[in-house]
Amino acid sequence: MDHSLPRPPWLRRLPSAVWTASAWCAAALFALVLFATTTYQMRPFHGQSGSPTLLGLGPRAGLAVVLSLAVIGARHRPVTVFGALLAESTVALALGESTWPFYGAMDVLLCLVAATRRRRTAFAAATVELGVWLGQWAVTDHGRAEFSDFLSTLLAVVAAIVIPFAIGNAIRQQRVYGEALRAHAGARAVTEERLRIARELHDMVAHSIGVIAIQAGAAGLVIDTQPDGARKALGIIESTSRETLAGLRRMLVSLRRAEADPDSGADQAVAVGLEGVERLAATASSAGVRVDVDWLGSRRPLPPEIDLAAFRIIQESVTNAVRHSGGHHCRVSVEYRDEELAIEVVDDGHGLARAGAAAGTGLGISGTRERVALLDGRFSAGAGPEGGFQVAVRLPA
Predict the structure, then answer these.
(1) What is the largest CA-CA distance in the chain?
(2) Quick one: which of 34, 81, 295, 347 has the fewest CB in 10 Å?
(3) What integer is the mean pLDDT of 82-91?
(4) Quick one: which of 364, 367, 208, 368 has its CA closest to 279?
């Protein structure tokens, strides 16, 4: 049983009508070549005596058409057509006609077999073709030809077999290599998508857990002396928890939809852009760090990946200010420039200590730096010019 390989993309894109027309044109050309080679010397047909007349051209034309019909099926069954041409070459030899047109067509088919079938199938076809040719030579020659003539003809036949085999095999290897590259690209895309989802989950959960931890600590300190303050902190914990759970639920639902329909815009269901900065500032302010947001320049729509990345960068920076800075004020500046988006987040906390932590392997800083690098932006983080900690980002927009 012959096992064919998947057809290359350029073959799949060709419409069926083009293939059908090409097959009929190839069969007509092959019939014309057969007819021309059998009538070139105008020899008698089937033992007729004397010179052939126009009446003798009819059987020859009919035979050429019949023998060429097999070529029509070369697209779907090249191995079968290859075997049929081998048999037809034997028939032509028995009729005393030239067999080189059949071997020329078989060489073209050999290239197709080597390009679309497994290598051992093509190698077997090439071996059978050479064996049949040697058998036909032995039957018709009867030892009359000199060894040098036989050797030169043999080399020519071998070259006519090896060249199309090599061309077809090269096409096959290129296709296999292309499929491997596409598979690798698909696996890489899956890995990158998983990393993106991991970053989204980290940014979402880290911010909320930071706020919850601070409010829980504050509630524990004042629950006996200031019940109203503790009640307010617990309310913030509840609202933050519900908002985080809702975001996680939206993300999980969108991921399930993406698995069911890869072309559905799953990212849009969970994407949060710069429109969420004000809510982020309000949440952080309720956690004890006042966040002021300055919008500079003319606001305009941004590419989705830039919009989402800008929000996540601000979210990560504000979360770090709430959890690690020890300060009471944070300023977020978003400036729309002609060809870029400039973001600065500055707090009034312990800048030198946080600068040392930023140089380490913290997931927040490294994740932000990686996100900016993927977008061909610029990132810097360290002690601010007036103390505190500063994060500065430039994104192409």
Answers:
(1) 130
(2) 295
(3) 82
(4) 208
Cα–Cα distances (Å) from 266 to 201, 250, 255, 262, 270, in that order, read 15, 10, 7, 8, 7
pLDDT band at 293 (very low <50, low <70, confident <90, very high): very high
How large a percentage of the chain has pLDDT more than 70? 72
Are 350 and 325 in contact by the 8 Å Cβ rule? The answer is: yes
142 vs 97, 136, 137, CA distance in Å?
Answer: 17, 10, 8
Q: Which amino acid is it at 127?
A: T
By C-alpha distance, which of 93, 87, 89 is closest to 140? 93
Give 284 or 16, the one with higher predicted confidence. 284
- Look at residues 92, 147, 57, 171 and name the one whose alpha carbon lies nearest to residue 106: 92
Q: What digits encode the pLDDT tens for the residues 336-364?
A: 998 899 999 998 887 644 444 444 434 56
Half-sphere exposure of 114 (CA within 13 A, CB side): 24
